[in-house]
Specification:
73% strand, mainly beta, 191 residues, eight-stranded antiparallel sheet, single chain, two-stranded antiparallel sheet
Length: 191
């Protein structure tokens, strides 16, 4: 219990999440919507173990570990949707784009033999635990077209085609086509 009380572990995380959008009716049945979102976070944590002596229980080496991380994600979407009805037919089409980017970086460092009252990284000696760090990013851009067809609320068809470009795809295949089609039949509406 006494050792747990001696340790000084602190962690501070900050996060800001935002979303902004606008939508406008251009003409009857045609809407345009734009959205922009962000997610930004930082983390700073530290753990300090001081020197101590309790009879035969002795720690002669103080230790400090610190970690700092930062992450940023943003997303921007734009799409136009057109909906029309004629007789028993209902048709909705959507044309859109989407772009997103993530970036992250961080470092973890260690020191030993610091004064018990000065817990900062510019004090003490280099630890035998290696310092580590990381940094990276990824991005994605998409263009898509979707159509939904509904006949008499009984037969439904949805078709989508996407063209995605991603930093996570292989260097020789940064772009790809992704089509999909689905069909549905509402048997309960047959009568």
């Amino acid at each position: 219990v006494a050792l747990a009380l001696l340790r000084n572990n602190e962690s501070l995380e900050s996060r800001l999440v935002s979303n902004l959008y606008g939508e406008i009716d251009l003409i009857e049945g045609l809407k345009f919507r734009s959205e922009f979102s962000t997610d930004f976070s930082t983390l700073r944590s530290s753990a300090f173990l001081p020197t101590y002596e309790w009879g035969q229980i002795v720690n002669n080496i103080s230790q400090l570990g610190q970690q700092s991380n930062q992450n940023l994600f943003w997303l921007w979407k734009n799409f136009a949707t057109y909906q029309t009805k004629f007789g028993k037919h209902d048709l909705t089409t959507m044309l859109g784009t989407e772009s997103q980017r993530s970036s992250w970086e961080g470092i973890t460092s260690y020191k030993v033999n610091l004064p018990n009252d000065i817990q900062v990284m510019n004090q003490g000696e280099i630890s035998n635990i290696p310092n580590t760090g990381f940094k990276g990013w990824s991005s994605l851009t998409s263009f898509f077209l979707r159509g939904n067809y509904n006949f008499d609320d009984r037969y439904l068809v949805t078709a989508t085609i996407r063209r995605d470009g991603s930093s996570r795809f292989g260097p020789n295949n940064r772009w790809g086509w992704f089509p999909s089609v689905s069909f549905a039949w509402r048997a309960l509406n047959e009568a």
